[in-house]
Amino acid sequence: MNQFATIRRAQRLTGPEKTAILFLCLGEERGSKLMQELKSSEISKITRAITAMGEVQSDIVEEVMREFGQKFSNYGGIVGSVEAARGLLKGFLPEDRVDSILEEIESGVGDNLWEELSKLDEKMFADYLRKEHNQTVAVILAKVTPDAVARVLPLMGEDRTIDIIERMVSIEVLPPDSMAAIEESLRREVLAKAGNNAEAEAEKQLVKVFNKLDTKMFEGIAKQLEKNIPEKIRSIKQKMFVFDDLGKVPANALAKVMREVSGNTLPMALRGAEKEVRDHFLNALPARSRDMLQDEMKAMGPVKSKDVKKAQSDLVEAAVQLAEAGDIELPDEDEGEEMME
Q1: Per-residue CA distances from 118 to 108, 115, 205, 213, 217 (Å)
Q2: Cβ neighbours, 10 Å, residue 64
Q3: What's 173's DSSP letter?
Q4: Domain 113-195 shares a fold with domain 243-324
Q5: pLDDT (tens digit, 9 = 90+) per residue, 295-306?
Q6: How many other C-beta atoms are found inside a 10 Å radius of the C-beta of residue 219?
Q7: Which of 77, 129, 172, 219 has a C-alpha 20 to 30 A away from that of 93?
Q8: What are the beta bridge partners of residue 80?
Q9: CA atoms within 13 A of residue 55's CA, in its CB half-sphere
Q10: Which CATH class is domain 113-195?
């Protein structure tokens, strides 16, 4: 009995599968050199396709090669497998990295349509779903994370939400062809468009990075960036939320932030805080908790600035996560500024 499934219809192949066939035809040496020119995410997709492909008949190989403008009619069949992928990867990656990539694929970790959709901006995701039939929406939402469903459903309207939930409760398994069509549409219509927002995502990432940098280091970097890319750095700075901004967070919300950290994070962060900010934290606590925190701070002795910065960064991250979850609201950049007539 053949241990491999056989691929017989080229029109059912995905882009990564067709690319995988090309790499297998190139062989280990040439395929490895070509893979070095690809991004890690692309390598992962192609490797995943190779490991799961199995046997590919020669007529399918010919049809795929025709798309690349080449003639491989006399090449014969090829076989995709874990070992075939390993042979390609080991030509330019260390052995431990090859093992790591294959372990990720075999365990189902890594590139995943549903994981990527779950991380999307809910407005963008909802815009796509509104165009689809409720049964299709139910199938899609049954695959993404509960957090993503909770963010998207409120944007669908009450009537549609009720119908979608009813369909999710009684959902049936779709035929493979139907599921494949939905997945292809999601990749083309949703993830491809989301990729066009790469600049916005990069900006979000930089906001998080800058929030974690030492203040003096950031000020030095920002000074030069303001000369080179003034508009972009101004936009990033407007989105930044730093430790001192916690001094503007209402007491009840600040109490939630403090409960999110453990150990000596809170006393360490306050040891390096400005008096006004420190007092705001202390006033947000009940008298007994406030006294205990002050005792902890006194007992710490001298502390390193890098430890203070790390603790303050942890508190900022906790506040941002609570805000993203809708548990608290962070102050706006312009809050408290005087309005001019």
Answers
A1: 16, 5, 18, 29, 35
A2: 22
A3: P
A4: yes
A5: 999 998 888 888
A6: 10
A7: 77
A8: 54
A9: 11
A10: mainly alpha
